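Before going further, learn to read the protein records used in this course. Taken together, the C-alpha cells spell out the fold as the letters spell out the chain. A record is reproduced here so that you can trace the correspondence yourselves:

***
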Amino acid sequence: MDEIKTLEARDTELASTEEEIRRERAEVRSRVNELNRALSIYRSVMGLPNASKPPAASELFPQASMSFTVGAQATRTIADIAEDYMAEHGGRAKVTDIVRELVRLKRLKGKHGDYGTVYGTLKRNERRFIWVGEGEFAVAGS
C-alpha cells in the first residue's frame, strides 16, 4: 500500500512538473515570435533586408520541436499539440495542417471526422485560440 501511495504521489508530482514545462515552453515560443515580429518591423523601418518571414521557434530551438517521439505525445491533449504547432508556425495555422500533424503523431486516425474534432476543440478553447479566418486559428495573445 505504501508503495502505491508513493508512486501515485510521484506521478502527481511529475504531471505538475510536465504542465509547468509545457506552460513555460509556450511562453518562450510566444516571446520568440513577438521578438521576431518586432525585428521584422525594425528592419522594415530601417530599410534593411528582411527575411520573407521570421524563423519558427523550431528553427531557433530545434531541441524543442514537435518532432519528438510519438509516445511523448500520448498524454498531451489535441489543444496542447495544436498550440505548440501554431507557435512553431508563426502563432497561427490552418485546421487541415493541424489535423495532418495529429495524424502524423498518431493522435488521430486520418478519418473524415478529424477536421470537425480539431475545429471543435479549437473553437471551444476560446481562451487559448482565436478564429482568424476560414479554417484558420491563432494562439490567443500571439
Remarks:
- The longest strand covers residues 129-133.
- The chain has a mean pLDDT of 80.
- The beta strands are 92-94, 129-133, 136-139.
